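Sequence in, structure out. Go.
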Amino acid sequence: MEERLKQILQFIYKEQASDLHLIPGSFPIMRKDGDLYPLAQFDIFTSDDTEKILFSLINEEKKKRLLKYKDIDFSFSLDEKTRFRVNIYLQVQGWAGAFRFIPNEIKSIEELNLPPILNEFMQRRQGFILIVGPAGTGKSTTLASMIDTINHQRQAHIITIEEPIEYLFTPDKAVISQREIPTHSPHWHRALKAALREDPDVIMIGELRDPESISIALTAAETGHLVLGTLHTNSASQTIDRIVDVLPENQKNQARLQLASTLIGIVSQRLVPRIKGGRVPACEVLIANNAVRNLIRENKIYQIDSVIDTSLAEGMISLERSLVNLVHLGEISLEKAIEFSLNPTKLKYLLEE
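Output:
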């Protein structure tokens, strides 16, 4: 690795930043607590600089893939404590890179301030759990925490399918097989289909990307496996719509029935800047009770938000109520709550209760 890049990445680790961007014609750019900062203490990167430095991170096989598809995902360790997920991509000024810091330690659900209901989800032996939200909202971290919870609690064969592998698990009570796309299998759906023949108890899917993967995941959850996955959606109800909508017309009814019978819960999360620094998760939680299952079967997804609003005693919570709770606890400002809300009018109403 280029010494120049090593110094920058060590700075990112020291600053506890989440991301680094290397873009031709710019200083290195750090993302910390959601905000971007140019690192003017380092030199501006030219197009030749970024190409040389980024290409030094990949072998010939990855380079061939990069030149063919114009972008590539992979991960690497700077040292024992410092690991990054990287995307190299081509843009108008030349090759650029986005680095996401992956903490070495996998924190518990409690340490991450995630909803306690996730601990109950992890007691289940069969079904479908989804962690959703926009990019950069901590979905992979939440998923890793949930998998590690199972790892420390019971004997199970856990298979993870990721692109790339992010958190590295140390087996405790569980046996863990981590597979990377395309290093260990050429396609998501092939790896997922193969997983069903590898005696899994738990299958973690880094991202549900295509109709075939979604269809296989639903079948896996239906046939005695605990399946965890992520989607880039904004809410629980939107997630259900997305799962059904991406499938061919002749599979939609079957998917609704499968989802209604297998869904355990959906958590939609955001990472909101704290008043005192750092970020805290705000989470919408949907638990698949009988009312939710019936709405999915009957294709009345538009009513699910109302069920969440009226089921606080069961452990469900809307994103707006989660944000309001964080405001009342003095964790986040009202301005940030409004900024991250999907329904500011509803948020203001809840604040006045």
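Check: The chain has 14 helices and 13 strands. Residues 117-351 form a domain with the Rossmann fold fold (CATH 3.40.50.300).
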